[in-house]
Amino acid sequence: MSIYRKTAGWLVAGSLLIHPAQHAVAKTDEQPSSYYIEPGSYGTKRETDPPDYVRNLSKTGIKGTEDITWLDVGLDYRMRYERRENDVRRRPSRSLDEPILLRTRAYLGIKEILDPLRAVAEFEDARRYNSQFDRDNRDINEFELIQGYMELHFKDALGYDDRGNARPAFIRAGRMAFEFLDRRLIGLNKWRNTTNTFQGFRASLGEDANDWALDLLALQPLTRLMTDFDKPNQDQWFSSIIGHWRKWSDIVTIEPYYMALRQDASPGNRNRARDIHATGLRLSGWVSDTGINYDLTGTYQFGRDDGRQHDAYMVTAEVGYTFLEHPWKPRISAFYGHVTGDKDPNDYKNNRFERFFGFARPWSSDDYMIPENVIAPKVKIEFEPIKGLKFDGGYSAFWLESNTDRFNNLLDGSSFNRDPTGNSGDFLGHGLDFRARYNITPYIAANVGYTHFTNGEFTKNRQVAANGTKSNQSDFIYVELSFNALDIFK
Description:
By secondary structure, the chain is mainly beta. The chain has 1 helix and 25 strands. About 0% of the residues lie in helices and about 50% in strands.
């Protein structure tokens, strides 16, 4: 059995998706083949476990560490300059802000040498300077432990799959940060300066390489405190069961899931009790050797929210085509997202979708949109003219799904972000975005982007209601540099 296998014109090696034109590979019958195929849809690639900046010490190139295979280490530094003009999230909306965001992360992971016992610690220091707005925990979380857990790990507890991959089992307890599915419901929020983290338990049966796997979560989200040690939200428990069926991954990967958020009423949440349940299914894959890929997800939510019946849903669909024979490997894609909002603020039903702990950036690159009360069609193009230099760009349009519900991020989330009468319209605006990423050296990566947002009728009408004035458009420019200290030695 070969470690490399071809699917949809791509080769899968371990958990990597590689195009044949980019890699010359030699086949061997000595190693198993992974079932995992990266979906390829825009902005949905999950952070790896451990994170992608982490290296095994034996492979860093540091002299004298060649035999230390039991230790994973990482040291990552990111700095980003932003220029935001007329940011619709702010009040007043007419403004210029040029913050500088700094983030440092460090990771230590012990594995194998003490098996089945393993341990991980990851630290983060996130800061913001030069902003005219109040400090907040989206950008600031100083000297924080974002992961600190113990793990019991059994490499082949569930035997082996048909391709010879060991099926492990593990259980973790402590602080954790991770991503699942397409990141729209559970994500690290890697773009944001601070990280979503949890405290509790995670168990897994199998891993990405296997034909099937199952993840089980029972967690409390951590409340990010800008200068103090983060604390678990004692009022909330988040639980989930996520399945992964990759037996037919040459055609489709099937991921059913169930999630639940329970919140007890307390003064800290204005005595709002919640019991929100969600069932969903994700289907993704490649269509033979055509270069066509797809990613489809549907989620239905039900339960109780502050005494009201909860009834909401989200549907996302993306179809893309990659020109496999072109040296730049250009990909064009079309996306449609439909997420419900509350229909009537005065009835006994809540239709506003609960985003849980998802990653918002796939919805809009300026952080304006989240998966709540939005209809969002998009078109994207991606290409790589030379190795290490990647471009992408796209056009998006946004509407309120319900014109009587809110545009969450508008005007600092104040009450002016909603018109219960529906008389302010439903069109939020157009978005144009461009991005370039380049690996300057093996250990320095650059990320430069620009987004132009043209305000729609709802956005302008609510700005007038709040401020007596409006802006017609906003601009967002950023320049980001990332440094991986462990790659210096290679």
